[in-house]
Write a structure and sequence with these properties.
alpha+beta, five-stranded antiparallel β-sheet, 7 strands, Arc Repressor Mutant, subunit A, 9 helices, about 40% helix, two-stranded antiparallel ribbon
């Protein structure tokens, strides 16, 4: 379980103001007073008073022509400070520990390196899983859930040379139909938001891998859950596969990733799968795994 710090007594007015700021983040464009008030569940008069104070601090600006409100320069400074302080790879390590504790299964975190998908974190499962994975090892691109995930989300010029090497470019196996089938597979992974393997490359072992995206929509790392087929069901949009995707979705939100919403610029790139706003802490989600208690980590 991801631990939550105890909450003391707060200041209600700050929490109300926070709802207005959250509404501006969700809208992602200059907004009318009435729209912000409706989203924050306050009256327009109340919202106006908060926005006046926010303008004085630089958190909010008001367009002099349209009268619409948008986030100000101090909000930008807060965001930049958050990004500088929040190291993705440190978060990746914490995430691997948390996901392994939630599920009791093996978890790896991988980044795209010079030689392909490279493991930077391994959390062992409660019950031994007979796979040889260690930090520094490189997944194949075409034969693993992690590799196929990177191939689906990264630019083709990065991944294609390794795919050609694995499949033997120029040999009979690298036919046009095979390439078309692979392209369709990658498109489906992008649509679903995760990649899976069943009994490949290790018989009896399944895996599901999901991307963690930063504020610009770029893949920072992949989180992969690995376990026996009896414990990890990955067919279709299984509950367990969606659980892993939701876990990665939470991490992406922590890195500033924001899903496209109605009213966004239609010319902007849109990721098709279901990343959305995180309404509750991930720790409150139901966990679709039968868990064996994990021993405490040393230290």
């Amino acid at each position: 379980m991801i631990k939550r710090l105890p909450e003391g007594r707060g200041v209600q007015s700050i929490e109300v103001g926070g709802r207005l700021l959250a509404a501006m983040v969700e809208l992602g464009k200059p907004a009318m007073l009435r729209d912000l008030a409706a989203m924050a569940k306050v009256t327009s008069a109340q919202a106006h008073a908060y926005l006046v104070s926010f303008r004085k601090t630089g958190l909010v600006e008001q367009d002099p022509l349209s009268g619409r409100y948008l986030l100000g320069p101090f909000a930008l400074q807060l965001g930049l400070t958050r990004m500088r302080e929040h190291v993705p790879l440190r978060m990746a390590s914490q995430a691997a520990i948390a996901l392994a504790a939630e599920t009791g299964l093996m978890v790896t975190v991988a980044v795209w390196g010079t030689h392909g998908p490279t493991i930077i974190e391994v959390e062992e499962s409660v019950q031994p899983v007979h796979v040889n994975l260690r930090v520094g090892a490189v997944y194949t691109v075409t034969g693993t859930a992690t590799g196929r995930l990177f191939a689906a989300f990264l630019p083709e010029d990065l991944t294609q040379p390794l795919i050609d090497k694995e499949r033997g470019a120029g040999r009979p196996g690298a036919t046009r139909p095979a390439k078309d089938k692979m392209a369709a597979d990658f498109a489906e992974i992008r649509q679903r938001g995760f990649a899976t393997t069943e009994g490949i490359p290790v018989p009896g072992i399944n895996a599901v891998s999901a991307p963690v995206l930063d504020h610009s929509g770029q893949v920072q790392f992949a989180v992969t859950l690995i376990g026996p087929a009896s414990d990890l069901i990955v067919k279709g949009d299984s509950e367990q596969a969606l659980f892993v995707r939701n876990f990665a979705e939470t991490l992406s939100a922590n890195l500033g990733f924001r899903a496209a919403v109605a009213g966004d610029d239609p010319s902007a790139p849109v990721l098709p799968f279901g990343f959305g706003r995180i309404g509750r802490e991930f720790a409150e989600r139901a966990v679709p795994f039968t868990r064996t208690p994990r021993r405490s980590r040393p230290g």
